Structure prediction request, 216 residues.
Amino acid sequence: PDVIIEAQFDDNDAEHGQDHLQDTLTDDIKKLSLDTGEKGKAAGVTGVHRTKQDDGPKVNDPRLLPDEFLQRTAKVVYILEKKHSRAATGFIKLLADRNSELFKRCAMFSPVDHRVPRVYVPLADCPPDFVSKPEAYSQMLFICRIVDWKEDSNFASGQLCKSLGQAGEIEPESEGILTEYGVDFSDFSPEVLECLPQNLPWAISPGELAKRRDLR
Prediction:
């Protein structure tokens, strides 16, 4: 039968790595082998005989199976281009384990966008009274930029760039979105402003209007 075996990742798979995935795939292949064998026995009872030439490959060895029975796997070997700005909008809070050494050095940054991982940020980047009054900053939006993510850590490392203001207000939320997507929203420089017409009021001449497409 045309059966495709798919090994799906969950949190435990991510922890145990490729070896766990391979074991899972091998177990599924063995189950398929047993099911096929049982069907063969049932067919033999009804008088259908099979020769050695009709037998398929030994499914105990995954390398001998046809491609349609295997789930392809791969690993990232090189980051060609970083598309994300590594900046995120979110909130800061104290770590849960107050007795750990990490509690004395770092706070936890939780991004609003759940596709971005949580980040350890230095307490030195946080407001001076954050440790004594963390509740005062529970609804304060911050911009954090991820700088590293070690292989043996569940969370990335980053730096707080700035405080945006209260969550839910238009200006802080808008600035956070523009920063995340790497949009430069700073004021135009004098050199750019000098390119604009200086004699005001300025109007498009009839000749220009005739050869332009009007999208107003």
